[in-house]
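Colleagues,

For the teaching module next term, I've prepared a clean inverse folding example: a structure given as tokens, and then the sequence designed for it. I'd like students to try predicting residues themselves before seeing the answer, so please don't circulate the second half yet.
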């Protein structure tokens, strides 16, 4: 089969094109099963933060190539000065534009889900609810 969006050749029984990430037409993959749209971000739709709009690798399949060969929940490490090892984090600050005295700060470790077939990787924050809570509080004047 050929991807209707980019024209690249599709893998057999692929749900998504490995070149562009477009969903394969439902007729080409069989009956469509609707998955829940609840995200870890307090009930918002996955479409709010994922370009492909479908289920992610935590649900068991790569959204890019459709493979079920997933390496789950791996820490992301960075070698710092003198080869010291640090896990990657993301952070939200109460006043991010402040030069100093940024107020409350929340950090969260990042974890990776990696597709064993195509290498596509998704990152998830371990403390996403705390990040989002501070983010929304910081947005209100």
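(Answer key — instructors only)
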């Amino acid at each position: 089969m050929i991807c209707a969006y980019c024209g690249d050749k599709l893998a057999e029984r692929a749900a998504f094109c490995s070149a562009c990430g477009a969903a394969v037409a439902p007729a080409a993959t069989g009956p469509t099963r609707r998955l829940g749209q609840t995200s870890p971000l307090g009930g918002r739709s996955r479409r709010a933060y994922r370009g492909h709009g479908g289920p992610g690798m935590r649900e068991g399949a790569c959204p890019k190539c459709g493979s079920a060969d997933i390496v789950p929940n791996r820490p992301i490490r960075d070698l710092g000065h003198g080869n010291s090892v640090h896990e990657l984090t993301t952070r939200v600050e109460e006043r991010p534009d402040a030069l100093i005295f940024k107020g409350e700060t929340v950090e969260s470790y990042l974890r990776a889900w990696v597709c064993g077939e195509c290498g596509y990787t998704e990152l998830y924050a371990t403390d996403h609810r705390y990040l989002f809570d501070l983010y929304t509080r910081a947005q209100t004047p």
